[in-house]
Automatic annotation (TrEMBL):
Ranges of residues in domain Aminotransferase class V: 135-306
GO molecular function: 2-aminoethylphosphonate-pyruvate transaminase activity
SUPFAM superfamilies reported for this sequence: PLP-dependent transferases (SSF53383)
HAMAP family reported for this sequence: PhnW_aminotrans_5 (MF_01376)
EC numbers on record: 2.6.1.37
Protein name: 2-aminoethylphosphonate--pyruvate transaminase
Gene3D superfamilies assigned: Aspartate Aminotransferase, domain 1 (3.90.1150.10), Type I PLP-dependent aspartate aminotransferase-like (Major domain) (3.40.640.10)
C-alpha cells in the first residue's frame, strides 16, 4: 500500500494509461492510492478489520459536526439504493406515512421503494427539476395529519439540482414531523451539519463525494431513532437496527463485508481530510463546475438550471439544436478523447450531464471543454446553442 504522505491532493495524477476520466456521479474516478488500498485481503472477523470499520464510522460521523454524541453511523452492504431502502424500512414505522418530495429519478425511486415496502406514502412530484419549497411542504403537512416523515433528496442527481433542504427541514419540524435525507450525491462535499440543519437520518454511499469505490452505503442517524427502529424492518439483510446492534456488540458487519471496498474507502477518507474535509472538497468541486460551465457556455451550450440551483456535483446541459449534433456520436468522440460523460434524464427535452465530482481538478475540466469543442468540430456543429423549446422549458424555473 502506498503511504498516505505521498498523496498530495494538489497533484491530481491522471487515471492509468488508457483509462478515461469518469465524468459521472459515481462510480467515479478515484485516486490511485484508493485503488492500491485494495491490493490486500482482510479477514472480516479479524481485529484489524474491525478497527477499520470503527475508524470508518467515526470519521463519517465527524463530518456531520455531531459534538454531543447524539448520532451514530451504520454502514450497510450494497449500492446506495439498498441503503435508502434500509433507511425507509427501518426508520418509518409500519403504521407511519411518508411524504416523498420528488423532482427527478431518485425521488421517484424513494416513492417506489415505499410501494414495495407496502407502507403509506404520498408524493409531491415537481417534475424533472423544479425544487420542492418549504411553503408547499408545510401546506401538504397541514392537509394530511397522518404524515409522520418527509424524505427529500439533497442533490437530485438526475438534473443536478441542489434542493433547499434547510428550508424544508424548518417546515417539517415546525409541523412536528421528522425528516429523512437522501444525501447520496452531496454528503462529503456539501455541508449537512446537524447543528445547522435538523434531521433524523441521512443516507449516502461509498462511491460518491468521498471518492471511494462502490460496494456499500451508510446511514447516519439519531441514536434515539436507531433504538426505536428495532423490529421494524421488512428485511433481514437491510435491517439497520440489527446491523447497528451487531456492530456495537462485536465490531463486525452481520454478513460478509466488502473488505477491499472498506479499505479503499478509509484511504479515500484520509484524502478527504487532507483536502480540508467537506469545505475543501466542496471548494474543489465548485471550481470544477465553474471552469467547466464557463467553458461550455463559451461554446454555446446552456445549462438547464440557473446559478441558484446549480450544484457543484453534476450539471445538465441541453443538447445543441444543430441538425448535425447527435448525442451518441458526441459521447463516442468524448470517450475517444478520454472522457466518459453521462446521458440526460429529462423527459421533455434532450440533454446530457457532466459530473464535477471525482479525483480531478480544474485543469482536467479545462481539457473536458477542449474535448467538447473538438468533438463539435468533428461533427460539423458550429454552435452548441439549444433549441427554443429547451429555453421555453427553462423559463418555467424562473416563473
Ligand atoms: C447515486 C444515488 C443513489 C443510489 O444509487 P445506486 O445506483 O443504488 O448507488 C440514490 N440517490 C441519489 C440522489 C443518488 O445520486
Amino acid at each position: 500500500m502506498r503511504a498516505e504522505a505521498t498523496d498530495k491532493v494538489e497533484g491530481f495524477e491522471p487515471p492509468a494509461l488508457g483509462e478515461p476520466y469518469l465524468l459521472t456521479p459515481g462510480p467515479l474516478t478515484t485516486a490511485s492510492s484508493v485503488k492500491q488500498a485494495m491490493l490486500r485481503d482482510w479477514g472480516s472477523w479479524d481485529g484489524d478489520f474491525r478497527a477499520m470499520t470503527g475508524d470508518l464510522r467515526n470519521r463519517l460521523l465527524a463530518l456531520t459536526g455531531d459534538k454531543k454524541g447524539e448520532f451514530d453511523c451504520v454502514p450497510i452492504q450494497g449500492s446506495g439504493t439498498f441503503a435508502v431502502e434500509a433507511m425507509l424500512g427501518s426508520f418509518v414505522p409500519r403504521d407511519g406515512k411518508v411524504l416523498v418530495l420528488a423532482n427527478g429519478a431518485y425521488g421517484l425511486r424513494a416513492a417506489q421503494t415505499m410501494q414495495y415496502l407496502g407502507r403509506a406514502h404520498t408524493l409531491i412530484d415537481k417534475g424533472d427539476y423544479l425544487p420542492p419549497r418549504g411553503a408547499e411542504v408545510a401546506a401538504a403537512l397541514d392537509a394530511d395529519p397522518a404524515i409522520t416523515h418527509v424524505i427529500v433528496i439533497h442533490c437530485e442527481t438526475s438534473s443536478g439540482i441542489l434542493n433547499p433542504v434547510g428550508e424544508i427541514s424548518e417546515a417539517v419540524y415546525a409541523k412536528g414531523r421528522k425528516l429523512l435525507i437522501d444525501s447520496m450525491s452531496a454528503f462529503g462535499a456539501i455541508p449537512l451539519d446537524v447543528n445547522e440543519i435538523r434531521y433524523e437520518v441521512m443516507v449516502s454511499s461509498a462511491n460518491k463525494c468521498i471518492e471511494g469505490v462502490p460496494g456499500f452505503g451508510f446511514v447516519i442517524a439519531r441514536k434515539s431513532e436507531l433504538e426505536a427502529a428495532k423490529g421494524r424492518s421488512h428485511s433481514l439483510s437491510l435491517d439497520i437496527h440489527a446491523q447497528w446492534a451487531a456492530m456495537e456488540k462485536t465490531g463486525q458487519w452481520r454478513f460478509t463485508p466488502p473488505t477491499h471496498v472498506v479499505a479503499a474507502f478509509l484511504q479515500a477518507l484520509k484524502l478527504h481530510e487532507a483536502e480540508g474535509g467537506v469545505a475543501g472538497r466542496g471548494a474543489r468541486y465548485a471550481k470544477n463546475r465553474d471552469v467547466m460551465v464557463a467553458g461550455m457556455r463559451e461554446l454555446g451550450f446552456e445549462t438547464l438550471l440557473s446559478e441558484q440551483w446549480l450544484s457543484p456535483i453534476i450539471v445538465t446541459f441541453f443538447c445543441p439544436a444543430h441538425e448535425k449534433f447527435s448525442f451518441p456520436r458526441f459521447y463516442d468522440l468524448m470517450k475517444g478523447k478520454g472522457f466518459i460523460i453521462y446521458p440526460g434524464k429529462l423527459t421533455v427535452v434532450e440533454s446530457f450531464r457532466v459530473g464535477c465530482i471525482g479525483h480531478m481538478d480544474e485543469h482536467v475540466m479545462r481539457r473536458v471543454v477542449e474535448a467538447a469543442a473538438a468533438s463539435l468540430n468533428e461533427m460539423g456543429v458550429d454552435t452548441a446553442a439549444p433549441p427554443a423549446t429547451a429555453i421555453a422549458e427553462r423559463a418555467k424555473l424562473a416563473a
